[in-house]
Amino acid sequence: MRSDVSLTAEATRTRRIVWGGLAIIGVAIAAFFPFDVVLRMLLLPLRRGWHGVFGTFNGVVLLAVAALPVAALAVWALARRRKAAGITSPWRTSLAEVGMVYGTVPWVWITLLPGSGAGVVPERVSLVPLRDLLAILASGPLSATMQIGGNLLVFAALGFFAPLRFPRLASIPRVAALVASCSVLVETAQYVLRLDRVSSVDDVLVNTAGAVLAAWASRHWWRAEA
Question: 102-140: per-residue pLDDT in tens?
Fold first, then answer.
């Protein structure tokens, strides 16, 4: 009976977190962007065919928004299956699995989108720490906020949810090592595929910092689990 009560309370908390997060996102979008502007921005890729959907930033955002109900359904199905099998923490485990994938794949996809000179311009590498970051900061507040904020979010979901799903990763240094390795792979892919992007050590540092901050934000839950 105590186990059933604990599972029910956990499911209730998880639902509140999920719906609360969605509500916050909706309020933020409504507060900063008129609905018609957001709708036009999301529907614009559809006018360009498949390339507009899969090969542009707006297209990837559109796919991510469309996949949100699918992700929620996947969490529900996995949690019900685990609960029926008697596995502990079914909702948290399922949410962590789906959250890692849903929150990481779109960002990595965006970082691998080819630029206008893909396949033509030579590969560019920046191995001097903080040089590109200082150049971004000097480009202006809006541009710097968008670029640095985007890099912080690339692996933030992985840093937040990975310690909840895998006990061996329940450590800030281990999360940092994992995300740094993943970021190096992304930068290497940009260089090898000649995507007209700069493979920079600063991107690795900022991506890792975002994941570490996210892991620190979720430390209360994975420390208790450990």
Answer: 999 999 999 998 887 777 777 788 888 888 888 888 888
CA distance 49 to 53: 7
- Give the separation between CA 183 and CA 199, rounded to whole angstroms: 10
Decide if 124 contacts 198 (C-beta within 8 A): yes
- Report the alpha-carbon distance of residue 30 to residue 98 in Å, rounded: 26
Residues whose CB falls within 8 Å of the CB of residue 89, separated by 6 or more in sequence, listed in order: 10, 225
d(CA 166, CA 97): 10
Q: Is the pTM of this model over 0.85?
A: no
Q: Which residues fall within 8 angstroms of residue 141, CB to CB, at 6 or more apart?
A: none
Strand ranges inside 90-197, DSSP E? 124-126
- Identify residue 36 by its one-letter amino acid code: D
